[in-house]
Amino acid sequence: MSFWSALFGRRSGAAAVKVSDPVEYKGYVIRAAPYKNNGGYQTAGTIEREIDGVRKEHRFIRADAYASYEDALNFTINKARQIIDLQGDRIFD
Known about the structure:
27% of the residues lie in helices and 39% in strands. By secondary structure, the protein is α+β, with helices and mostly antiparallel strands. The longest helix is centred in the last third of the chain and has 19 residues, at 69-87. The chain is elongated, with a radius of gyration of 13 Å. The termini are far apart.
């Protein structure tokens, strides 16, 4: 099941994705949204920022999976911070 299918319920029987409370980091907003996949939780989320009055969003999914939702949630937030540190606003290009 893909993250976006689960998020928007395009497949019947898709599990609802729990999106975390927003986490602010260096002017960006991170929303972790790990989803159930093959018995584990897949790393997925969004990074948002307002640039010149326009809200930009970068969606990401990584191959990393964890047995617990909490572990996946923590890893997703840390991965988003790493993406921000390495790429900054280039993620929106």
